[in-house]
Design brief:
There is one protein chain. This protein is mainly α and 261 residues long. It contains twelve helices and no strands. Helix 9 packs antiparallel against helix 12. The longest helix has 42 residues. The model has no long low-confidence stretch (mean pLDDT 84).
């Protein structure tokens, strides 16, 4: 009886916390499909605000995905080999490099953006292009890719696999392509989904790096809340959730599959 009461109390507390987090987002998204937010659902439902957001911010939404998948490509090409090299080599130097790669997670996004502006802000064309934001997103998300892949390496004992393939005469490139990458696929998938999700939702760093021609989803969302009527901003929130939630679900699904293995 006591265990049931404890379980019921824990469940109730969890549901209250979840409601505290979910209800505001739900109300915001609901406002995006109502004719008049202040009159509520009784004013009627409409998709006109969603259509208006798409007409105004379609290029912003597209640019966000271009930057997110560009960030993913760079983190895959650089992060997976880096994780492999750091794990295989080991030692103090590898640990030091790993900590340096992880530093952007601890540094505020605004400080990181300021450093990029001070260093590369003088390159006019580069500063005005979306590639400048891409660099910031790569620096910010790289630790998540490297950590995810290294965690899988630790679970599958990559060193033994690598040594076994080497003893059979496989070249370093072939060992990496045919042995390491397939065994690291759960970590690569989890890291990839995390990188895309973080890039799409990143605001602080992007706010400092963007220009009027390089706005992303979160910047457009802030802009719509500041300059549009509430229903338009809420419709933007709805579109943002529609795009981000499938990625979060996929992350949990792939994470579950990796755990089962």
């Amino acid at each position: 009886m006591r265990d049931r009461m404890i379980f019921a109390a824990q469940l109730l507390f969890t549901m209250l916390v979840a409601a505290f987090l979910v209800v505001p987002a739900g109300l915001s998204m609901t406002a995006g499909i109502t004719v008049n937010y202040f009159r509520g659902i009784q004013s009627g439902l409409t998709l006109q605000w969603v259509v208006q957001v798409w007409e105004l911010y379609a290029s912003t939404i597209l640019l966000s995905f271009v930057i997110a998948f560009g960030t993913l490509a760079v983190t895959l090409l650089a992060g997976v080999p880096a994780a492999y090299a750091l794990y295989i080599r080991g030692g103090r130097l590898s640990r030091a490099v790993e900590e340096i790669i992880t530093l952007p997670v601890a540094i505020p996004g605004l400080a990181l953006a300021l450093g990029l502006l001070l260093t590369y802000g003088g390159f006019g064309d580069f500063r005005r292009s979306w590639l400048f934001i891409l660099v910031g997103h790569v620096i910010f998300t790289m630790p998540f890719m490297v950590r995810s892949v290294m965690a899988v390496f630790a679970n599958v004992d990559v060193k033994t696999l690598d040594e076994g393939a080497a003893s059979l005469g496989a070249s370093p490139w072939r060992r990496f392509r045919d042995v390491i990458v397939p065994n690291a696929s759960p970590g690569i998938l989890a890291g990839s989904l995390m990188v895309v999700t973080l890039s799409l939702g990143e605001f602080n760093l992007t706010w400092m790096l963007h220009t009027p021609l390089t706005k992303t989803l979160p910047i457009g969302l802030a802009d719509s809340y500041a300059s549009m009527r509430l229903e338009v901003a809420s419709a933007y929130t709805l579109i943002f959730f529609i795009m981000i939630i499938p990625l979060l679900v996929a992350m949990q699904w792939f994470g579950g599959r990796g755990g089962v293995r």
